[in-house]
Amino acid sequence: MNEQRVSEILTKYQADPGAVIAILQDIQEEFSYLPKNALMIVSRELDIPLSRVLSLATFYTAFSLKPKGKHPIHVCLGTACHVRGAQLVLEKFERELGIKTGETSPDMEYSLDAVRCVGCCGLAPVVMVGEDVHGKITQTKAAGLIKKYKK
Amino acid sequence: MAEKAKDKTYRLHLMVCAGTGCVSNHSYEIKEALEKEIKKHGLENEVTVVPTGCNGFCERGPILVVQPGNIFYQQLAVKDVPHLVEEHFLKGRLVSKFMYTPPEEKKPVPVLNDIPFFKKQVLIALRNRGLIDPEKIDESIARDGYKALVKALTEMTPDKIITEITLSGLRGRGGAGFPTGLKWQLVRNAASSNGGGKYIVCNGDEGDPGAFMDRSILEADPHAVIEGMVIGAKAIGATAGFVYVRNEYPLAVQRLSIALDQARDYGLLGSDILGTGFDFDIQIKRGAGAFVCGEETALMASIEGRLGEPRPRPPYPAQSGLWGKPTCINNVETWANVPMIINRGAKWYAGIGTETSKGTKVFSLVGKINNTGLVEVPMGISLREIIYDIGGGIPGGKAFKAVQTGGPSGGCIPREKIDLPIDYESLTEAGSMMGSGGMVIMDQDTCMVDIARYFLSFTHEESCGKCTPCREGTKAMLDILTRITAGKGTEEDIGLLQDLALSIKDSALCGLGKTAPNPVLTTLRYFRDEYEAHIRTKKCPAHVCRQLNIYTINPETCVKVGRGCDVCRRNCASDAITGQKNEAHVIDRAKCIKCGVCFDVCNFGAVKVD
Description:
A: 151 residues; alpha+beta; B: 610 residues; alpha/beta; Ubiquitin-like (UB roll); 18 strands
C-alpha cells in the first residue's frame, strides 16, 4: 500500500475529522478497498478511535475491507430491475464467474455485487461494470458482457 | 469576454440527451459522430451540437431533439448519423425512420410535443430539460435562471419570500409532503444557540429503488437547485448549505460541482451575493451507500461524519439540526420548484393541482410499461392517464395488475383503483404514499407475494439495526414471506404477518421501520388470493416464485414446430436438457435449477411452466 497517497488524501481535506467519510471514499477509490494500514493512519491523523473508523467502514456499503476486482460488476436489484428479472441475471453472473455475490474472482479481474438502484430504471435490468452502465441485460447477454471486459 | 466573441447564432441546435440512461446507450458517441459529419459537410458554422440533461423518454434513447422545430429522433446508432446529417441538416428533409411511432399506430410523430408521452406533461421542476447544456450557466440564465434569485435578494424581505412559498401550497417532494413554507417559517423563527448560524440542506440521497427524478434534475438543471437553495437561505437566514448526493450518482456530483463553481464566478453564490451583502455558500457531500441516510436525522449524522443512524424526533431539525443548529432540509425536486414560484407567483402555482396538493410532481414511470421514463404531471391526474396516455400501456398486450408507489415505504395500488386522482392524500388513503415519485408498473406476470418479499428483503438489509422492531421485526416478516414463496407457508402465516406488520408500524424508531410493513399490508389488502394460492396450492400464479415452478417441454411442439432446434439445450445453465436436433428435448427435473432460460429462448412455445 502506498502510504504517501493516504497522506496526500488527508492533506487534501486538511485532516478534518468531519470529512472522515469523504477521506475514506477517496481511499476506497484509490485502492479499490480500505487497507488496514490506511485505516490506522486515518485514525491516528484525525484522532478518531480506530473502532469508530471501522464502524464507518462497515456501515456504509460503498466501503470494502477486501480488495475488489479490476472490473467491479454491480447488478442492480432496484424494483424496476427486479420485476424485469434482475435476480436471475445476478445468478447467471455468479455461475459465469464461478463466484458468489460479494466475492472477487481469484485472478482479481472481476468482483460481483448487488446494488440497490442505480437510477437507470428506464433501462432495466441494469448492470454496471466499473463506471459503465449497461441496460436491458438478460441472462443470455451476461456472458457476452463479461467477455467484453476480458483483457 | 473571449467567451462572448465565440458566441454565434446557429441555424440548428442538435440537443443530444446526455442523461445517465442515454449516455449508457452511447449518446456521447452519437455526439462525436454528429460533430464529425457536420464538419465534413462544412456545416459547423450553422449547426451546433449541445449535450443536455435527461430528456425523460429514457426507453427511447439515445435521443436527439432538433431545435428549432422540436423534431424528436430516437434510438439512434452511430451508423445512422451520416444519413441523418445529410438528409435533415444539409438537405432539410426530415428522416422519418428515426422518429418515434407510438404503439398501435402506423405513422411516426415528428414533433416532440405531439408525442403522447410528452403531451400531458406540465414542466415546472423539469422546465429546462433537454433545452440547456447543464454545464453552462449562461444557458441556464438565458432560460430565466437566477432571475428569481435577483428578485428575492433585491426586492423581497425574508418574510415576503416565506409568505409566497406558503401561499403557493408547495409541499415536500421527498415523500412526506410537509408544507415547505411552514418548515421555512419554523427554521426562521428558531433561535440559534451557541454562536448563531443556520443551515440549509438539499436531500439528494434518492434511495427509493425505482425513483430517479432527483438524479435527473441534478444532472439536467443543477442551477435550478442552487438558485432555490440560495432563496431559501435568504428566507431563513442561513449562511451555509449542503447538498447530500447519493454515492451511486457520479454524473450528478460532477455537474453540480461545475454549476457551483460557475455560480460562484458569477457572484451568485459565496460572499456578498449580487453585492447585496448576503453571504451563502454550498458544499457537496457524497453519500456512502446507506438507504437510511435519506431519513433526515440520519442524513445529518452522515454529513457530520458519523454513522448514518436516525435519532428520535423531537427535536426536529428545524430546532436542532446540523451541529445542533436550526436546519432546513428539503429534497432536490422541492428546491427546483422554488425559483418558479418566486418568478411567477404563488397564485399561479396554487392554480395547478388539487385542493390539498398543489403544483406538479415528477414521477419515474418504470417496470412493465411501454414508455419508461421521467414524467412531470399536475397533481390530481389519474393513474389511468399516467399509465395509458403517457406510459402507452403495458407491453405485449398483457394485463395491468398494480402500480407500486412510494418505494419500500409505499404500497401497491390495484387495477380497481386506476381512476384514482394522484395526490398526497389519495395515495395515503389507498394504503400507499407519494414517496419520492417512483412508479413501478406491474403486470399479470408479476407476483405480489414476491414483491412484498422483495421490499422486506430491502428494508431488512438497509435497517441500520439501532431499534429492535425494525432490526428483528423485518427479519421475522422476511422469513415468513420467504417461506410462503418457497411453498412452505401455513394458514397461520397470514395472520402472523399482519400482527407483526402492525406492531412494527407502531414501535419502530424512524420512518424506515414505521413504513417497512406497508408493501406487505397493501398486498395483503388487495392481493390476498395470491398469498392463499402460494399457501394452499403451493403454486405461484404468476410463475415468478421459482421454487414452485416446474418446467417441461411439450415433445410434439418441440419436434413438429421447432424441429428439435436444440437452442434450449445449448443455453441450459445446468445441463438439465437432453435431446438432439430434430428430436424431442427433455428436461431432467433433478438437474433443473429453474432459471427459466429455456422458456425465454424457445421460439416455438414448446417450453411450458406450471
